[in-house]
Amino acid sequence: MAFYTYIVRCRDGSLYTGWTTDIEDRVKKHSEGRGAKYTRSRRPVTLVYCERLRSARDAQRREREIKKLTRGQKLALIGAGPSADMTERGAGEEDSLP
């Protein structure tokens, strides 16, 4: 099973970070208003960043790390790793992106 931590850009330009096991379905749910409460009034959303991780625990940990970043740091992260390049990461690996 795959685990993903992701960032979507909302219609108002804000960023939302989450984790999931099915990235396509999760982004679709956010855009349909069936995702997180935060994104319901900010549809549609666009996937701007995604990382594939080895476990749910790793994905949740990475979500917490990203949520602690400033907006500027999140934008730098988005620029450093496009969603098409899903790097697999897991426990014990450095937090810096390739």
Structure overview:
The protein is an alpha+beta fold and 98 residues long. The protein contains 4 helices and 4 strands. It has helices at residues 23-32, 37-40, 56-67, 71-80, and strands at residues 3-9, 15-20, 46-53, 88-89. Strands 2-1-3-4 form a 4-stranded mixed beta sheet, with helices on both faces. A hairpin with a 5-residue loop joins strand 1 (3-9) and strand 2. The model is unreliable at 82-87 and 91-98 (pLDDT under 50).
Q: Helical amount among residues, as a percent range?
A: 25-40%
Class by SSE composition: alpha+beta
Please summarize the sheet with the most strands: 4 strands, mixed
Instruction: Please tally the helical runs, counting DSSP H or I stretches of 4 or more residues.
Output: 4
**First and last CA, distance:** 23 Å
State the strand order across the main sheet.
2-1-3-4
Number of strands: 4
What fraction strand?
15-25%
Low-confidence residue ranges = 82-87, 91-98
Shape: globular
